[in-house]
Every structure is written in C-alpha cells, then in structure tokens.
Amino acid sequence: MELVLPTLDEQRALLTSLRPRTAALEWVVRRGVSPEPLAALLDGFDPARTVGVGPRPGYPKPEADATVLTCRAHRDLFARLAETGLFRAVRDPHGDRVAPTDLGFVDVGFLDDRQRLICSTVTHAGIIHLLEPVG
Question: Which residues of 33-66 are buried (b: 16+ CB within 10 A; e: fewer)?
Fold first, then answer.
C-alpha cells in the first residue's frame, strides 16, 4: 500500500500503529542530503553505520553511495518523528509539493524483529510504502 502526501495527523497515526511492531529504525542518507541534523537526533543511540543500500520500495536500483544508519527502535525516536513528521505535505492550488522537516530529506525504514522492512518512506516525494497491513 502506498500513502501519498499524508497529513501530519495521518503520519502520527501511522507512527503510533507501527511503534509496537518496529524493532529497529533505519535512516537512509542519500548523496546530496546532509547527515548533520540526523546525527544530532541519533546522538546517544549508537547507530550502526553501513554504506550502500539495496533496492527497496521507491528505489528499484541499489545505491552504493547511500549511508544507512540503523538503531534499535526507541520511544524517544518515535516521539521526535511524531513531533516533526516524516515530511511536510504542502497543499497548493498550483500543485502540491513536499517540504523537508528539520531532518531534511532522509528516508526512514521501519524493521520488524526479524529485520524485515515493514514500512519505508521516499521522503523527497512524500510517499510512505506500507509493506504489511497496519492495525
């Protein structure tokens, strides 16, 4: 299922439903995206850092130069995401657009306890991919 330009309230409801099923959060920093705001958010969470990401919803090809930061899911991280949103949908009669949060256009992945991706964002496009139904 794909959610396109959900409101902040819709994003918060989704985050609330994902929290109990999420064991880890994955932050994908692509070329040209500043990692500094994310580093401040993740300070103290000791994220594992890898370089390169395989294909995923919204990105059909691997990206060797993307940096992936993965850390255990924590209520403080969910609270921060609920506060800022994953992205900002800007409605306009001349065309809707996406604005970044203070974390920029960092994509977020939600992994279950078997490290399967259950939800991911294509942040710059304002799209959330749900790979499992949420309840």
Answer: bebebbeebbeeeebeeeeebeebbbbeeebeeb
Alpha-carbon span 62 to 52, nearest angstrom: 7
Q: How far is CA 71 from CA 4, 7, 91, 103, 114, in A?
A: 26, 26, 33, 16, 14
Amino acid letter at 4? V
Q: pTM of the predicted model, to two decimals?
A: 0.90
Residues 31, 35: Cα–Cα separation, whole Å: 10
**63 neighbors 23 (Cβ within 8 angstroms):** no
Among positive and negative, which fits the CA dihedral 130, 59, 78, 26?
Answer: positive
Q: Identify whether the C-beta of residue 24 lies closer than 8 Å to the C-beta of residue 71.
A: yes
For 93-122, give the secondary structure using H, E and C: CCCCEEECECCECCEEEEECCCCCEEEEEE
Whose tokens are 């255990």? That residue is: 72
Q: Which residues of the chain have pLDDT under 70?
A: 134-135
Other C-beta atoms lying within 10 Å of the C-beta of residue 13: 14
- pLDDT recorded at residue 33: 83
